[in-house]
From TrEMBL:
This is Deoxyribokinase. Substrate binds at M10, V11, D12, G38, K39, G40, A41, N42, E138, D251. It comes from Cutibacterium namnetense. The lineage of its organism: Bacteria, Bacillati, Actinomycetota, Actinomycetes, Propionibacteriales. Pfam families: PfkB. The gene is rbsK. Keywords: ATP-binding, Carbohydrate metabolism, Cytoplasm, Kinase, Magnesium, Metal-binding, Nucleotide-binding, Potassium, Transferase.
Length: 301
């Protein structure tokens, strides 16, 4: 086993609409699509498609979306031993896309809100076989903190992607983690510092280094990523591509980074690979549908 992802799964319910109905009104919309998402699941799928052995610790509901998610994990070669059924709805994201590609998104966490520290403890034996723990914030914060503690006890490095951002994230309780990977807006909200220039971004990372985090990797969209550590900081540029849809780019970056770092332990090379993989993903529509396999091809369906 290489990577334990402890996080969320969602089913995206995407309605392509001419316009939003007003109160009391019913309107017809031209198209509907369903897709598997959720930050935890996206990162697990990216790493697994690149060849990592991934175990997913997550909760699904008691509905058809749970079956869709389980099938998606299996299809992508992810270990589902710790995908737990919950007497609740699955996590879903109804998304409305208008003709100008503007999105309105609702997130219903559903079963994800029930992933508990006890669930993580129950998966301890399998987590202990992994080389990296990957976390985001679409599950309860107490579960995130408990997992970080477990990582310390087991001596397994932890990567935390603070998304979606939780301003109440307690930096004291995440100190000692190996990798903290925000995008610019998450960095701004967590540190309360501006991120208008790269110099600003660097200063904000200093706060996190001071809080005892070993490596801060800030994704910078088309500009690539900044790596800040005790001995300095550097920018690692992303390839120039024609972007058509950047949804899920951060998750592609993290999944690929995790796989490369677990294999080679070289942070710069892992960031370079993450940039390449995420930049490739933004040249296609969708989230998981835009994630390539290790040979650059896309999965059959
Ligand atoms: P998020 O999706 O979390 O907002 P970013 O927008 O920072 O994260 O993107 C994550 C990574 O995806 C970047 O670090 C970069 O590697 C890649 N990326 C995103 N947008 C582009 C783009 N327009 N061109 C090339 N690479 C991109």
């Amino acid at each position: 086993m290489d990577i334990a992802v402890i996080g969320s799964n969602m089913v995206d319910l995407i309605s392509y609409i001419h316009r939003m109905p007003s109160e009391g009104e019913t309107v017809e919309a031209p198209e509907f699509r369903m897709g598997c998402g959720g930050k935890g699941a996206n990162q697990a799928v990216a790493a697994s498609r690149l060849g990592a052995e991934v175990v997913m610790i997550t909760r699904v509901g008691n509905d058809v979306f749970a079956d869709t998610t389980l099938e998606n994990f299996r299809k992508n070669g992810i270990d589902t031993t710790h995908v737990l059924r919950t007497d609740a709805s699955s996590g879903v994201a109804p998304i409305f896309v208008d003709p100008e590609s503007r999105n309105s998104i609702l997130i219903i966490k559903g079963a994800n809100a029930y992933l508990s520290p006890a669930d993580v403890e129950d998966a301890r034996e399998d987590i202990a076989k992994c080389k990296l723990i990957v976390l985001q914030l679409e599950i309860p914060l107490d579960t995130v903190y408990a997992t970080i503690e477990l990582g310390k006890v087991l001596g397994i490095p932890v990567l935390l992607n603070p998304a979606p951002v939780a301003p109440e994230l307690d930096l004291e309780r995440i100190c000692g983690i190996e990798f903290f990977m925000p995008n610019e807006s998450e960095l701004e909200l967590i540190t309360g510092m501006p991120v208008d220039t790269l110099d600003d971004v660097g200063k904000a990372t200093d706060v996190l280094l001071g809080a005892g985090i070993t490596n801060i990797i800030v994704t910078l969209g088309s500009r690539g990523a900044m790596w800040a550590h005790a001995y300095g900081r550097e920018i690692i540029k992303a390839p120039v591509v024609r972007a058509v849809d950047t949804t899920g780019a951060g998750d592609a970056f993290i999944g690929c980074f995790a796989k490369e770092w677990v294999d080679h332990g070289d942070v710069t090379a892992a960031i370079r690979a993450g940039n390449r993989y995420a930049a490739d993903s933004v040249t296609r529509h969708g989230t998981q549908t835009s994630y390539a396999l290790a040979d650059g091809s896309l999965p059959a369906d």
